[in-house]
Amino acid sequence: MTATALGAGLSVRDVRASRPQSLVAVGRRLEDKRRRVVTMAQLLLWRRSAAPRWSGAGSTAAADRYGVVVAGLGQVAQSIAVAGQALGLAAGRLQSAIDLVGRADRRAAAEGAWVDEDGRLFLPVRATVGDPAAQAHRARLDELLRAEVLACLLRARQAATETDEELARTLLAAARGTTSGLAAEGAGWMPVPAPDPPSGRVGAGNDAVFASAAWWRSLTDGERRRVVRERPEWVGSRDGVPVAARHEANLTLLARAERVAATRAREVDAAVAAPWHAAERTRAHERVADLRAIRDVLGRRDGLERRLLLVDASERDVKAVVAVGDLERAEHLTTFVGGLTTTVRDDLARYDTTFARMRAEAIEVASGDLAVVTWMGYDAPQLDEIVSSIDRNVLNARLARDNAGALADFVTGLEAARDSPAHQTVWAHSYGAVLAGFASLRTSGIDDLAVFGAPGLPFSDVDRTSLDPGALNVLGAIGDDVFNYGWMVHGTPPASVVGALRLSTFAPKEPGVGCNHILHPRSDFVDVGRTSSGHSDYLRAGTDSARNLVAVAAGRPDLRIVQGADERACTTTGPSLGTDPLAWPRPIP
Q1: Is the CB of residue 450 less than 8 Å from the CB of residue 427?
Q2: How is domain 243-506+529-558 classified at the CATH fold level?
Q3: Is 508 helix (H, G, I), strand (E, B) or coil?
Q4: Would the N or C end of the chain have less CB density within 10 A of its end CB?
């Protein structure tokens, strides 16, 4: 595969051949020259002040001449300073371009490919395998590789070409002495380019995600600080940008949103009370509650690291993405997607508590650290919309389909921003599983997918997705009518997908006796502590369903508890456990 031509400008070969350290050395020599000129100007001023005083035309002419010479030396010193600064900044940008080419080389080598001197990517001949799902998965990895390598090389060429052209203009201006406006640090030099719209918000795909990652890497440290400080909206929601930068930018955006929301709440409270103002007043206070929930979770003092990867208060409900754990270094990353009725104000805190616990359980069995993300990056459908909306109705897949790109880009962006790849899992509950199903049809960084309480999936065979064989895990609890009947409006029953692995959600005390809870109290039939029931019990501590989700996230498929014959009989032909007279408490996780 040959990289797309940039047109006129420096080539990958030129970037490889550049020597930024030479520019640094020249800049240092120029700084020495500047200091000499400044010293000379100071010496002239001292000699002028120490000279015997006299008056008359000669004295006036001498003073004027001294002033002209000193001013000239000052202009020379300023021109030298601008030239030296330009060389230093150019060296930094060129080094970033070289590092981008180096990343392309390393990513290719990691997949058995290579990039030649001219920037062409060569893939090895892949052995043909008989498993269509494995073949599709390999194609997905090659597609991701192409996208990342091309983005790195293209941005390296662009950055090097921009640097070369700007350096030439600045040095020419310095030689001509027309450097006014360039002397201030950073002024007039390589203004941070306005990026494309954040890919994560529009589902722009892998090209945009890797382009964002390459754009960020092409900036100097100073430019990165500047863009976070002055344009946080460019960074906060931009998939492919490192977590630390996104968190810092989003803290600024969160503070802005809080001020706007508080002002609006005061305005609607001060307005004359009227029935038609009630809905507006409710929305204003819900917005405040959403933002307060984010602030409260970020401020928890339990010793865990949390990062804010998205805050968006521009639509009906606030969107937020909050991570617990080190997303930049952990070997395993898990992203959770919720379903019907999910809101930041009602659910973020309890999900954060639950996932902090599950993360600790996963770390005990994982080969390395693990981080968990609560992804509330879409407006989840709400109960009132079942009758008030068509497009946002939970019975309509449109909302899931329209937001699948945002989820896929987010997961890919986490990978693109890292120095080394991670094992990435998506946990998806209820309607969120429909969304995750659509996301798995795209080429993304998703390695494993676990859906629980899923009403249906938009495919009938894993080989239609980009998932690896064995990567789709399905959990359905006894008494979960969403799981049992949701497929009627949302496609294929999850348990019927070819290649899906059905994981256990309950533990019978007497294996081999079938679905006999009809004849016995429930506590006689199953281990209550290990058994999930209904639609909202999958994450409860101690259940087999929670253990299975932990095993998938930790990259330990050997620890998964596969559904047995008794459970299959209960969930496919038996009545709902909800009819049992001895129902046990079902705490919300």
Answers
A1: yes
A2: Rossmann fold (3.40.50)
A3: strand
A4: N
